[in-house]
Amino acid sequence: MRDKKNILIVSPTKIGLTETFIRAHIDELEGNIHYLYGWGLDYKTEEDVSLKELYYPKASFKDKLQSILPHYIYFRLDKSKQKQYTKEALIKRYLVEHQIDVVLAEYGTAGSFIAPICVELSIPFIVHFHGIDASSYDLLEKFKEGYQFMFNYAQKIIVVSRAMKRALVEVGCSPDKIVINTYGPHPDYIKISANYDSNYLISVGRHTYKKAPYLTILAFKKVLNVYPNLKLKMIGNGELFHVCKNLVNSLALEDNIVLLGGLSRIDIIKHMESAFLFVQHSLVAHNGDSEGTPVGIIEAMAAGLPVVSTYHAGIPDVVVENETGYLSNENDIDTMAKHIIKLNKDRNLAKKLGLNGKERIKANFTLEQHLDIINLELSKALNT
What's the predicted TM-score (pTM) here? Predict the structure, then answer.
């Protein structure tokens, strides 16, 4: 009898700088963790070795048939060998050889792909939704049948906000299967002391349509009309990075807005320590893509920064209006600007809201609490 369960975590793409929650799952969940990534079942290990490379047979002298055919042509002509090396066959082999007890699929799309194999091998699985997978119009349509199959057979579906739960119930998931489990920040953020005397604001997040960094810039421009000494540090890369750079340049705001690109946690923490306020203007993108609950906001609250953001997705679940920050409607940059001006004018209020936010995170949204819930659900799945 093994002491620890073998857990396979799968995700559609290799984890990036902003997916700190998946990294925490890989590093800190209880069990022997295996990790694969790839679209469909075309998986690679974290070392970027594909399952085809891992299991592809080494050619013997006979197989090579050097005087007649290259090995790869010989292999392709051998139908029996082809069947052993389909994507489905390779992942089945991996699951069996590594004695996988339970699968945690990060993102609904990954869950949809692997669900039929888990059912076939009688391996329990849990699916963790994060944002775009529960909101993108195209993905919801493309994976309509796959999601229904997955909803029926998954032991649990984990979501990060009440809004996400409502969205999945609307597309056919039983509310009884859904567990709300908001992210928790890395403990390093709790150790931060914000600088409430600073003239720096900060935003952290990928430059994508749902985070609308250009609207944060436009709101901040209005603030500068009143307080021209303020500066905004924007951390993150993404499809809109150069759009934002052009906007900053065209508005002649280079002295007030610094685009820092993607940074490591250590560097983000250094910049958070120099700020007195966190800003983010999240909204529903043109393709339906929405936030789950932005990790950047949770990390900022853990750092003691008051938050100015929007009534969007899971943000109101963590940011309490008038207690830990201020929220405006999506696209309302005038109100966002007023909130920033108010907190800049009253630094005692900024400090009060920031410290309230830190206490709220410590009491309700720690990384330990987040991981405990997943560990519990994985254990329960094994006993169903």
Answer: 0.91
